[in-house]
Specification:
Residues 3-55 form the PAN-3 domain. This is PAN-3 domain-containing protein. It comes from Caenorhabditis nigoni. With 388 residues, the protein is of the alpha+beta class. The protein has three domains: 5-100, no CATH class; 109-261, no CATH class; 272-387, Roll (Mannose-Binding Protein A, Chain A), CATH 3.10.100. The chain is 14% helix and 34% strand. The protein is built from six helices and 23 strands. The strands form five sheets. Strands 8, 9, 10, 11, 12, 13, 14, 15, 16 and 17 form a ten-stranded mixed β-sheet that branches. It has a four-stranded antiparallel β-sheet with strand order 3-7-6-5, with no helix packed on it. A four-stranded antiparallel β-sheet has the order 21-20-22-23. It is elongated and about 85 Å long. The relative contact order is 0.09.
Amino acid sequence: MGISWDDCVQDCFSVTFCILAYGNSSLLCALYNIGDVRKIRNDKEASEALEKVSFKFETTKDCPKEHAGMFDGVLTTFNGSLINSSQIITSEYFYTFKYVSSHITDCGMQFEPEIDCSDCDKTMMIFRAKKIEFVSLLHKTARTWYNCVLQCSLTNWCFAARMSGASMTRMDDTLPMEFPQNCFMYKLDELQSFERIEDPGPYPVSGYYSYMTIKFSSSICPGTYTFMFSGSHESNFGYFTRFSSYTLTTTGSQTAIEFKYQKITTCEGDNIFVLADHPQCYGFYRESVPYSQAAQRCKIVGGDGLMAIPSEAALKDIHKVKESILPDGGFYFVGLTRADENSDWEWTLPDLMYDQVVYNMSAENLKGPGLYASLDFTGYNTTLRAQK
């Protein structure tokens, strides 16, 4: 607020990823980054609020002397963005941005406020939110909100993403501008609740207010806010195969998320792996939980218990699988416990054991404090380690 039109245009010109500036008689200045604006109304005559926009695009050798036809055939390219280029399409009533990216297909372009009921397997519903509650998240670098949405769309395990703003002082060191800079991505069971903001008007995005997007199946119709934010929805986005469904319950503007685990009935399916020459299959659950919750989670999905490590050969197979699906390190609970730190370690599923080689090679690490054991994938050699 309080920025003259000329200063607003200059700010957009100076910011690398800004492609459109908006201003009005109230001295409101709104800047739009690459991908963050799709369609602009062409008033033809000055509106009562004296609304105006300024487009930033690559100049050509033959710069037109009049605005008519100014955008024809002009392609603006970008470096450092998931969008390769943009083009402005002019019609009688609208200016429309057409974006080109090598990262997405036409289905991947379904980033709309309301879902297009199409044959695409997924779409991103966009809205604004506040009072967001969660148990965990992953911070990603994204230069624009569109890039944040696109990263979530391309990432199987990403169910939702949000982006909040950061202040940036204007070139003349006066009023600060708000630009979205921090992209946070959530798995389905990490996002708990949020409050959707229905006001579509422009205002600063701060740590309290955020842009937000949730991934839905495009086969769900009608794709309206009212329908999507009330009821049960199937989960079919790759990484989420261990969840059968999730429910969004909205009271007023507050929406809470609950999820149900997919029951495991056979050793076939995504995220389930079989040990060769052994009657045991297992899965990795990348969740930061204590042992009691890990054991309870195993029962919920229909498992017999936290897995045993039957032999050294099996450990090598498990290590290869883990590296292929989760290349970063970590600790994963297994079914090896003891009553107290003076007691012997015991497998919770002893019938699945072939030998004690893995236990013996981990003897020193199991002397540490703790009543539960995990597979330690942080070093070169995978071993068992005591955990509290």
